[in-house]
Specification:
Layout lengths: L1 E5 L2 E5 L15 H13 L7 E4 L5 H5 L6 E4 L2 H13 L8 E4 L8 E7 L4 H11 L3 E12 L5 H10 L3 E3 L6 E6 L14 E4 L11 E4 L11 H7 L10 E5 L5 H9 L4 E6 L2 H14 L7 E5 L11 E6 L4 E2 L2 E2 L2 H13 E12 L4 H9 L3 E5 L3 E7 L17
Parallel strand pairs: 3-4, 3-6, 4-5, 6-7, 12-13, 12-15, 13-14, 15-18
Antiparallel strand pairs: 1-2, 7-9, 8-9, 10-11, 16-17, 18-20, 19-20
Helix pairs in contact: 4-5, 7-8, 9-10
The structure holds S-adenosylmethionine.
Length: 397
Amino acid sequence: MNRLTTPWGELALTRFPEDPRDQLRAWDAADDYLLRHLADEGTDLSGSLVVLGDRWGALTTALAGHGPVQLTDSYLGRRATEANLARTGTDTSAVALRTVRDEPPDRIDVLLIRVPKSLALLEDQLHRLAPAIHPGTVVVGTGMVDEIHTSTLRLFERIVGPTRTSLAVRKARLIFCTPDPALPRSPSPWPLRYALPDGIGAMADRTVTNHAGVFCADRLDIGTRFFLGTLPAPRGPVDVIDLGCGNGVVGTAVAVASPGASVTFADESYSAVASARETYHDNVPDGAGRAAFVVGDGLAGLPDDSADLVLCNPPFHSHRATTDTTARRMFGDARRVLRPGGELWVVGNRHLGYHVRLRRIFGGCETVAGHPKFVVLRAVAPAPASPANRGPRTGTR
Ligand SMILES: C[S@@+](CC[C@H](N)C(=O)[O-])C[C@H]1O[C@@H](n2cnc3c(N)ncnc32)[C@H](O)[C@@H]1O
């Protein structure tokens, strides 16, 4: 556990899920810089305070005594915030944890923005929050130097008002924005709906919906495209999971090709699950009873032995680091929820070496299709071992 010393006290902060082997901190110099700036400037925090994009809850936890509203697109970020708040002695009853899909507050007096990785998410959120911002609203953004680009500042300029940045301190920078009520107010361009190309299997020429910040923002990713061309078309009543569903294009492809399939779409992003819901209903108009939509960490909330097929295009970045940590956890989850004989299909960059992980977790895996850059792998859940020699089912590391 790492401690962040703030003007509001020392905070013990963790990411979610908590992993004692994880050396990554739950806060960084950008959080620290913003908190010190607020204290040094004596910013009046007595009004309506909104914190957008707080990664693991460092800002919300430090400012808990001022009753912030947190807006996040990440289930993991929200769970981390809950745990970090619970660990402080502060009265946290006034803190409101909301998602970026919820109705924003009517009035905002202080808006603190941890600049998100996705410029689209920032654009959409600034559009959504703009009506609640007034000429006296204090708007301060923060991020690491390499997260703040000219395009980021232009968004603030275009949607909120004149913008400048601070000097860099420990590779972090602040963004100061003065609201300009005279700026013409336009609606957010998000969500985007776009047509898919030909030659990709069941979803050819169909349309997907992408809310801001969701993978495949305005066109199909090439890995997803390759995956779509290789998907199985199971017959009969099968239970399928689209794990890390993004806009839901993969699970919807199976639902279109296999009318007996029931599909669960799972993602840790609220906007992804909202996108998947729209993509599915637009393409499977009579499929209301055959789909479920779950925001969560991997398949944590789903029962053992409940699926026949899990489809997964795992993330291989966590914020700025390349890592297969989430992929490994997803493979372990898939192993747990698959019925004996059920299959996990995975697409990934060839160099990530997922086959090694899959062999360890499933006892084997085969290559379904290859491409110079990608590979589609299939692992089959074995029949349960006899009780005498049964090992732990989720031993994924
Ligand atoms: C590479 S994208 C794949 C999206 C979509 N399936 C596709 O192929 O276009 C990976 C997805 O995994 C989601 N994700 C990341 N961590 C997750 C977690 N712990 N649990 C569930 N989903 C997660 C991301 O939000 C993202 O939508």
